[in-house]
Amino acid sequence: MGKFNPNADNIYQLLAGVLSSGGEFGKPSYFNNTVYYGAVGDALKAFPITNARLAVTPWSQSANQFPYPGTTPSISANGVADGIVWAVENRNTAVLHAYDATNLATELFNSNQAANSRDQFGGNKFITPMVANGRVYVGTPSSVAVFGLLP
After folding, report:
1. Could you report the per-residue pLDDT of 30-83, keeping only the tens digit for each?
2. Short-list 53, 42, 44, CA closest to 12
3. Three-state DSSP class for 145?
4. What is the CA radius of gyration of the chain?
5. Which domains does the chain carry?
6. Are 136 and 86 a contacting pair, CB within 8 Å?
7. CA 118 to CA 132: how far, in whole Å?
């Protein structure tokens, strides 16, 4: 992508030390000129894009950190409004988190909030929440957990 040069690297942009040293095993997500990353052992971070480059520091990040293998965020929105960033925290009892896309410090929901075990599901590596028709689908080791508005 940067064209091969045997004498020098043609790196367009290098952001050293911005994500945890644990690695990034998922994919970032994009919404409204912002890229969202969830590296191993790190918070979910939002990097705005300016002049075709990512900001060198995140402008927003979640309060919690995501253990191995990090998180692969998904986005739901109404066009360019009401963006929600969905991310799964992989543990024995995994946790689905929903964050305000404009401020990741604002958690809108997590699946541990219910007083009972209604919203709990087993962890599974490399879970990517899928959003369709007003619901969020999360693959588990043996099934699919479905989240949506209660009647």
Report:
1. 999 999 999 999 999 999 999 999 999 999 999 999 999 999 999 999 999 999
2. 53
3. strand
4. 17
5. 29-147 (2.40.128)
6. yes
7. 21
